[in-house]
Amino acid sequence: xxxxxxxxxxxxxxxxxxxxxxxxxxxxxxxxxxxxxxxxxxxxxxxxxxxxxxxxxxxxxxxxxxxxxxxxxxxxxxxxxxxxxxxxxxxxxxxxxxxxxxxxxxxxxxxxxxxxxxxxxxxxxxxxxxxxxxxxxxxxxxxxxxxxxxxxxxxxxxxxxxxxxxxxxxxxxxxxxxxxxxxxxxxxxxxxxxxxxxxxxxxxxxxxxxxxxxxxxxxxxxxxxxxxxxxxxxxxxxxxxxxxxxxxxxxxxxxxxxxxxxxxxxxxxxxxxxxxxxxxxxxxxxxxxxxxxxxxxxxxxxxxxxxxxxxxxxxxxxxxxxxxxxxxxxxxxxxxxxxxxxxxxxxxxxxxxxxxxxxxxxxxxxxxxxxxxxxxxxxxxxxxxxxxxxxxxxxxxxxxxxxxxxxxxxxxxxxxxxxxxxxxxxxxxxxxxxxxxxxxxxxxxxxxxxxxxxxxxx
Length: 458
Ligand code: BES
Ligand code: ZN
Ligand code: ZN
Description:
This protein is α/β, with parallel strands linked by helices.
């Protein structure tokens, strides 16, 4: 069995050996490997300026390095992490390290015929930190579930199969899953969902999931865009490789991961998840540009562009959140390319209630799902005007696309609720392995939504 020991650079083994100490100091990065008396050590450098995200990233990098060397086990010696990151809270550091470790080891190999999954097992010494480590594993597993959903291909995960995947996943948890199929969606008047999925070979679904850890807490609705593939529809997308548009259900994956995290940590919250599931594809039966959708609340919407489909299905879900009297509503979606132009690929955008947006930002700063508050510019609202319906699903402006998308959603937000909208298009996938991210789906949002629900239920 190949095994390495993880130690801190201030460990006597390194600090007491001048050449070794010099070698470690000279290495770039937050960790390095050394061989002493035929034992392999991973040395974590003392990082006085490191934040908690750095702990996750370091763990992810070590885990991936060791897995590529086919090291079977890594033992973190007692005292190592609290010394390396002495300015951070001990429990938080151990949770972050375990979380980063498992996420850094994440692989999606379902369709690789020759590769077998390999993960270096993490063993952490010290009785007092075991529950912190366990929490890190739970957080990683929930995020990995979101990644798995996003990475899956659209002929396997589609509006007809997706609800069953969720049912199976939550079979032994306190999460109650209700699935509405096409007929019920018709009865419920969810005309955005029906219209967007009209050209697909799959029927739409609408999934509601409840997790009640404490009935006395305010009802929080988590709404996730579940477009299992976005071709753009009749307003067809162009591009060399649209494969990543299978991840256009990333918002729903975030909600699904958050539910798992809340249930596994037995969080004292009262949460309902609302997930509209559709596929957006061209066909002779598809919605054509110019058609009008009449929503349950009476609002009529001109479908100016069938590629702005996310907002059309989220509108139904927001109306539903109102029917359920949700006090807080957070929707999350891979909604616009514009947010990628605005914020790039390291941070999502949050719109809506300003006070809540700053609470969410703080939550993300801590847990690694970074988010930045964005403005709902009133003056842009009129750009959603339609010549013949109450509104258009695209703005007449050539700028501010993520803002006008948020303004569109705002029109469907129930009165008396506190609403946030997270546009995670830029956070959908990573282009390389780095830190605790593996190339491809990120699992963004699972931790963000779960921790936010806990925060506002305190
Ligand atoms: N799913 C896309 C947004 C997207 C883009 C997600 C890139 C992830 C990466 C969304 O449905 C879309 O197509 N939005 C359009 C809206 C436009 C037609 C107003 C866009 O952003 O171009
Ligand atoms: Zn689209
Ligand atoms: Zn989309």
